[in-house]
Amino acid sequence: MKLPNVRESIFSLKSYLSAIMALYLAYSMGLPRPFWAMTTAYVVAQPWSGAVRSKALYRLAGTFFGSAATVYLVPRLSNSPVVMTAAMVLWVGACLYLSVLDRTPRSYLFMLAGYTAAMIGFPSVTAPALVFDTALARVEEISLGIVCATLIHSIVLPRGLAPAMTLMLDKAVRDARNWMHDTLSGQATEQKDRDRRVLANDITQLRLMSTHVPFDTSNLRWTSGAVRAMQDQIAALTPTVSAVEDRMRALQAGGQPLPEPVTALLADISEWINAGAQATHETAVQLRAAATQLTPAIDSRSSWRDVLLASLMTRLRELVDTYDECLALRREIRAGLAGAPLRAPRSKPAPNAALHRDRGMALLSALAAGVAISVCCAFWIGTAWSNGATAALMAAIFSCFFASQDNPVPGIMQFLTYTVYSIPLSALYLLGIMPALHSFEMLALAMLPTTFVLGIFIARPATAGKAMAMLFGFLGTMALQDTNTADIVSFIDTQVAQCMGVATAAIIAAIFRTVSADWSARRIQAANWKELETLASSPRAPSRHTYAARMLDRIGLLQPRLALAQRPDDLVAADALKDLRVGRDITELQRARRHLPMAEPAIQPVLDGLARFFHARSAWQVGEKTPEFLAQIDRALASVAATPPGAAARDRAVVALVGLRRVLARAGLYRLVWHPALFDLALFVVLLYGVSLISPYLLQR
After folding, report:
1. Contact call for residues 253 and 369 (beta carbons, < 8 A)
2. What is the pLDDT of residue 313?
3. Segments in 252-303 forming alpha helices (H)
4. R_g of the chain, CA atoms, integer Å
5. pLDDT by residue (tens digit) across 415-443?
6. Torsion-angle region of residue 191: left (phi > 0), alpha (psi -120 to 50) or beta?
7. Which in 75, 359, 463, 613 has the greatest CB count within 10 A?
8. How many Å apart are CA 547 and CA 555, to the nearest integer?
9. How much of the chain is helix, strand and coil, in % rounded to 5?
10. What's the Cα-to-Cα distance from 356 to each of 536, 551, 558, 562, 563, rounded to whole Å?
């Protein structure tokens, strides 16, 4: 075990300071559960002050809404335990559904609203007349912990997000540069695939990390617009580089060499890219002009090789422009961190709504949480267990904590394991040390060694989950001191209830919620095809940046799942990259056809055919291309080429049609392995089965 460094020690001391301040204020205010305030301060703690501030805002709002729901539900339903359980299940399930869908810090609002209602509601069923006072006290305790943690982490040696964010931006640019260099220089396919996977993961991590930028304590928060714009430009590089690679391969098919001027231009672009931060805008202008000069004129007599070359030159110009904009935005962010004024972004950044959402998995998570809570409540009601509320609320909490994972069982079981490991430590403090303490100062000093060591491990990503589990179990047990039940019987009863609730959440998740990496990857791929169908059938041109960001996010989600998949190949990721290119070509074709009235009658059948093609794929039916469909693309290409030259829409349409034909001419057959709609049907069947189980109890009431 390595010794703690300065950064880890500072984080642990700040976390302890905020927690002990929350505990002191809670005692001073006479709140009934001061240790809840201390626990909340540790739950909110994050290494970066911006992350603490962003989550704190949503946690406060979530705590308020969850408490309001409890105050409304408990007095009305406390005399009907089954109906009360059903109402709480619906509330927690609905909040968890929204939380899983929203992959931004705002998800904490919905998650907290869900399990806060369980934390307050279940212990209050025995005294419903006091539920408002109980809810108010819980809100005060939780809010006190949130506010103290936010203040300490924002004021005392705040750790800004700027170093980590700029390091991630530089890494993404470097990985994009490596991929572009390997593509332009004709490196092996394996290396390019590795470069692409790394870049896709960078883009997803950037988008998630940047959600905290507006809350940061450094000048980085003033550059949030430039950061988002740079992310969009990096995302836009991916389909462009892939298209360049495809056109180069097509032009070199059959052993044909590239024209010498084109080879020289590729070498110049590669050299400019490899210059990194020293790459100048003037060189980018020269390279773009050279690509324009090498672009052949396209008309109805042009050959397929001429069309491919024109498409390659267009994509090379886009590559140069996009990478040049990335470098400009990176220089702007660097200047903004130094306090320089920022210019307005040249392109509108993609919203957070561009992130992928899986409603089926969100529904499954909500169902698993509802079943876990129902099982604990059924045992509680059937046995009249005095501590059954603790088991129910623990099942609710841990069903929510790991709901976004494909397989939440390992995370829940790790938490359960280290909660059990915390029992001897909790017993030592609660039954041995605490009775000998007679002042708050002695309490603070007694807790310092344990919380400092656990805080060190929380600061380390590899051990954060384990240390938080021990701290959660330790402080949860210390709360017995608040209720004057610090005896061996109450201690054992509480530990059994905590472990039972966590174990129930793990068992139900294993039965209802766990899915394989292969299955999750297939659902993501089906979502790509469904969106391509929507793009092709849309009456209006969609946003290119939003679509590209969402597709890149899905590629980033695919990578860790493919690493765990049983199949050794990377065909799903390769297909996702092709889908990204097809989506970009569809959006460009949709934008261009409005300005080409002469060619629109030939373009519309292509879009209709694409919609049917990807509808079949999204249903996992046979998606075989037909000669008639490829002939439609050829007719549309000839019709667009016959329009008067000079219009930008004409060039965009030509490039888009070339790209579509390149992808679809090599599209393969798709076997009906498992229809994703059957997954949603299975969810519906399981839901009906659950209703059938509880309906006799409802009828009895």
Report:
1. no
2. 92
3. 260-274, 281-293
4. 29
5. 899 989 999 998 898 888 888 888 899 99
6. alpha
7. 613
8. 12
9. 80, 0, 20
10. 19, 8, 11, 17, 19
